[in-house]
């Protein structure tokens, strides 16, 4: 059988994959569908359950679901979710699982607590969504060239490889860590600033960042 793989949220543009359409295609062609929701798990959906919740999908739609624990969860490692048969096959057959070291107990417990926070403290997700909306509003008011992303990843296309490095360095000197992304990570002519928002940012942080960007891009 064929295996179709997709990100849930693409890491360089912040756009969300059309998972329902891909799932329908996979069912029609009797293909497995695997989604890496590294940037969606903990940040998308009404309660942070990721792209599946965002699109109201389930295990029948996406039989192999994986995500990292090192982003929204704030710990380390990753997981794969699926049917009992799938998980048992991975445990018995996957060389990368068989010959790896178990997660340290402290990391496992920290991950359990992070999951508890995501499930029970909705204010963090509300803060993140509020910050995304506020950032986009500030960019619109200042005519900043931010892309159309509704996720925490907000790319700003600069184009020139050297210019994006200069702006990134100037932002760092002003107290902002904003990574410059250049080819071959992204296509030629689309070098960008990759701005990543979090629940802990404040409107004052966002005001200061966007005002600094507006000054640097004059």
Could you explain how this protein is built, in words?
The strands form two sheets. A four-stranded mixed β-sheet has the order 1-2-3-4, covered by helices on one side. Strands 5-7-6 form a three-stranded antiparallel β-sheet, covered by helices on one side. Helix 6 (123-141) runs parallel beside helix 8. 42% of the residues lie in helices and 16% in strands. The protein is built from eight helices and seven strands. The model has no long low-confidence stretch (mean pLDDT 95). It is globular. The longest helix has 19 residues, at 123-141. The protein has 218 residues and is an alpha/beta fold. The chain has two domains: 3-120, Aspartate Aminotransferase, domain 2 (3-Layer(aba) Sandwich), CATH 3.40.640.10; 123-216, Aspartate Aminotransferase, domain 1. Helix 1 links the parallel strand 1 (3-7) and strand 2 (32-36).
Outline the biggest β-sheet: 4 strands, mixed
Number of DSSP strands?
7
CATH 2nd-level architecture of the largest domain: 3-Layer(aba) Sandwich
CATH superfamily of the largest domain: Type I PLP-dependent aspartate aminotransferase-like (Major domain)
CA-based gyration radius:
19 Å
- Share in helix: 40-55%
CATH fold field value of the largest domain: Aspartate Aminotransferase, domain 2
Taking strands numbered 1, 2, ... along the chain, how are they ordered across the largest sheet? 1-2-3-4
Main CATH class of the largest domain: Alpha Beta
Helical segment count: 8
Distance between the termini: 54 Å
Name the overall outline.
Answer: globular
Strand content: 15-25%
The low-pLDDT segments are none
